[in-house]
Amino acid sequence: MTTTLRPPVGELLRGWRQRRRLSQLDLANDAGVSARHLGFLETGRARPSREMVLRLAEHLDVPLRERNDLLLAAGFAPAYARRGLASPDLAAVTRALDLVLAAHEPFPALVVDRSWELVTANRALALFTAGLPAHLLEPPVNVLRLSLHPEGLAPRIANLAQWRAHVLHRLGHEADLTGDPGLAALHRELTALPGGSDRSTPDGIAVPLRLRTGGGVLSFLSTVTTFGTAVDLTAAELSVEAFLPADAVTAEAVRHLAAGAAGEHSGSLRSVDGGGRP
């Protein structure tokens, strides 16, 4: 049997403080504790209470999953449950997701987990996925890999270098913010894919996704929605990304395509239960 050694809670707290670029004095002042006591906690000379772990985690903006890790390292039970989306306890969450996805039609919208794996999507996502190879559409589908892979959306993205720089910057920031090694590995994988990088300041208000289609180039702006007060791991790690038209031409073209495809759902992506991941 292989035993995985968990780092001491003080070492983990110090790592989170350094990741947030805070001094001991900064964190101590924010959390209402003495810098001396915080130093003792980080070096293991003092043992934090459950309440102190949660207080420091709150001020360090530690994700819920990693707050559980801190509690376990300190010898306490986890505070945050992880339920599957099929759980009756998350019925309100699934209803809210269905409402948001439906409200964005005829424009594409999808739900992803923290790893950027697809949880579910509305019918309009077929606008992006139609014609893509089956091996990229088999669950679990990582939507960032799908967008930047040379067999995925990448050849259809008119501003690939610009969009790629935006995606990689965002992913790198999330990997740093969460300390998630899976996100860091995904960032390395996607960075190695071809496509260039354009970090110049874009025109307009945001970096658009400019997609080549049979009807010309369509331009979208993306928005992200999260459950801001979630205390369940599954709900806290879900995000809704919606792609809205960046111009009137795109809006009219998408509505025309949706009208022509009424009653059809050609996308081969399948919904999965985002709460079932370990």
Automatic annotation (TrEMBL):
Superkingdom of this protein's organism: Bacteria
Pfam annotation, one family: MLTR_LBD
Signal peptide: none
Classification via InterPro entries: Cro/C1-type_HTH (IPR001387), Lambda_DNA-bd_dom_sf (IPR010982), MLTR_LBD (IPR041413)
GO MF, any single term: DNA binding
UniProt xrefs under CDD domains: HTH_XRE
PROSITE patterns reported in the protein's UniProt record: HTH_CROC1
Domain HTH cro/C1-type: from-to ranges: 13-67
PANTHER family for this protein: BLL4672 PROTEIN-RELATED (PTHR35010), BLL5781 PROTEIN (PTHR35010:SF4)
Protein name as catalogued: Transcriptional regulator, contains XRE-family HTH domain
The organism of origin for this protein: Geodermatophilus dictyosporus
